[in-house]
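Morning!

This is the sequence you dropped in the shared folder:
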Amino acid sequence: MELTAEQMEIRIGKKEIIKNVSIRVKNQQFVGLIGPNGCGKSTLLKSIYKSLVPQKGTVFLDDMDVLKTSEKKVSQQMGVVSQFNEMHFDLTVQQMVMFNDSMKMVKLNNIFEGETGQVSLETLINVDPDVLIIPDWSNNGGTTPDAIKQALYANSKLSSMKAIKNKQIYAVDYNYMFGYGYNTIDGMEILAKEMYPDLFK
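The structure's back. Tokens below.
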């Protein structure tokens, strides 16, 4: 059995992660992808096993066109053991629309707008956002924002990111982020004061 991926191209938002990459794995061959954090290794693999949809390219397992074949049929021929370093966004479409609208109040664009499911650390590194917004669950017994921030700042895998280097991580109460109403406005005002303190002097 032979796996062939040709001319793969993948973008997340406007960020190009993989450009014109091809790989061929012969029957019973072991292949390792080597490269620094954020170079696109996991993103390429996810596009090969259909967890991400590439903008361009083909994937064949022998004569099977993986990208055009049902997941059920592909799974009968291909198994995957993935890393557990992903961020999960279990949000409804309505909640995500509300979140995107809320962010625009403070002149931020959600770089993952339109994306669903999981975001790997590698993808986060690749898109390299200027600002990270994290939900504050502490009122519901979750980890405090300061503890989450310190863990992110201390994570060596993320050290190259602009938001980490410039200490641009902000926490917003979860209840402020996913609803229309005065709570959302109050939450965005709190965030704006933290992000743009000079404007509120």
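Headline: The chain is about 30% helix and 20% strand.

More detail when I'm at my desk.
O.
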